[in-house]
Amino acid sequence: MNLIQRIDALLPQTQCGKCGHPGCKPYAEGIAKGEAINKCPPGGQETIAGLAHLLRVPVLDLDTSRGEAPAQLAYIREAECIGCTKCIQACPVDAIVGAAKLMHTVIIDECTGCDLCVAPCPVDCIEMRPLVSVVPIVGGLAANDLERHERRLKRDRARLRYEQRNARLQREEEHKLAERLARAKRSTPMDAIPVDNHQVVQDAAIKKAKITVAMSRAQLHKSLKAFGHPPTFEQQSRLIVLQQQFEAAEQALATLEVGSPPATSTPKDPELKRAKIQLAMRRAELKRAQEQSADTQQLATLSAALTAAEQNLHEAEAASEQPAPVLQRVEKRPIDSQLRQLKTALAYARADFSKLQRQPGTHADELNAAQRKLDEAQRQVEAHMPRSE
Questions:
Q1: Backbone phi, then psi, for 154, in 5-degree steps?
Q2: Burial per residue of 235-270, b for 16 or more beta-carbon CB atoms within 10 angstroms, e otherwise
Q3: What residues contact residue 280 under an 8 Å CB cut-off, 6+ apart?
Q4: What is the 3-class SS of 109-138, one letter each residue?
Q5: Cβ contact 113:72 at 8 Å
Q6: pTM
Q7: Which pLDDT tens digit goes with each residue over 276-319?
Q8: Counting Cβ atoms within 10 Å, is residue 184 exposed (0-12), middle (13-18) or buried (19+)?
Q9: Dihedral sign, CA of 358, 364, 366, 367?
Q10: Which of 73, 184, 297, 320 is the least buried, fewest Cβ under 10 Å from its Cβ?
């Protein structure tokens, strides 16, 4: 095992990107080249101590400018899920299951708590809940020793799932490229001009650039939502870097699209696109400030920034050659807050009962009490369902 692999084995394998790298393995490569060992909030001091021991360097304090990352798990409020699959695409370890237009749910045992699924959700039905771990003393080992052993096993499993997901995505991309080549060959007569493989490769490069733009945009929005208002100097520096990465990705995509033949659809106006992104950012800032009960002056400043962003969008739409979108108002069915609370209580009761079943040495009285609590929660949900329909 080389140095990069040994460093990577100590990282938490959340693939969250809070260290400034797209994953744990790139950060391990950076550490091997001399980068600081205190940039991993999910790993905390335990990871810093392990890296310092491995590399024989001084133990540093955690770089808190990158935010905090306590042990947590993603939870989907299933009554609000619309089945858009965006969270499934964002999860780096395939810990979310579901299908298009169907409810999604999180595999609790596989979730790494990276919170990358929160920002892409268009209805904000995903929340991060603290991870509560109760490990009994078994065979004379202390609870913290068993917890460290469990964390190591989970790191190894998360790394394996991450690598398997990347391999699967690579296979799917290669399969799609092969299908495009096959379709192009079938659509061309045998005695006609050969298929332009260069154009197929160009299309694949454009698609990859679009994915990069989408990922950098999601990272920027996630950071805007996670950082405080106003952000610290370090957070502002991080936002500037993310904004530059996003603009560089957009520029790379525009460069590729210049050399490609004109598409049949209407070309996108970069200024209009930028105005839409700025409007979404201002809305997210105002919403977060309202949730944190910010003072009146700050709310007024953010509201004015939102109004200016809306005006800029209107001006960009007027200057754009694209047709104005046809807007339709959709009346959404109101969510029954009491039913949602009952379903949440039911989910907690089910999780507690399942946890007690998995724990060795659980007393029968505790298991029976959890079963009664689960039955009562199920009964309340069923009793409320007819009134909610």
A1: -70, -35
A2: beebbeebbebbeebbebbeebbeeeeeeeeeeebe
A3: 221
A4: HHCCCCCCCCCCCCCCCEEEEECCCCCCCE
A5: yes
A6: 0.48
A7: 888 888 887 888 778 777 788 888 888 888 888 888 888 888 77
A8: middle
A9: positive
A10: 297
Residue 296 is encoded by which pair of tokens? 């009146």
Beta strands in 290-341, from DSSP E residues, in sequence order? none
Alpha carbons 59 and 172: distance in angstroms, whole number: 43
Burial class (CB in 10 A: 0-12, 13-18, 19+), 29: middle
| 72-130 CATH pick, 3.40.50.970, 3.40.50.2300, 3.10.310.30, 3.30.70.20 | 3.30.70.20
Domain boundaries, the chain: 3-66, 72-130, 337-388
**Do residues 84 and 126 touch, judged by C-beta distance below 8 A?**
no
How far is Cα 313 from Cα 278, in angstroms, rounded to an integer?
9
Give per-residue pLDDT as tens, 63-75.
887 777 788 899 9
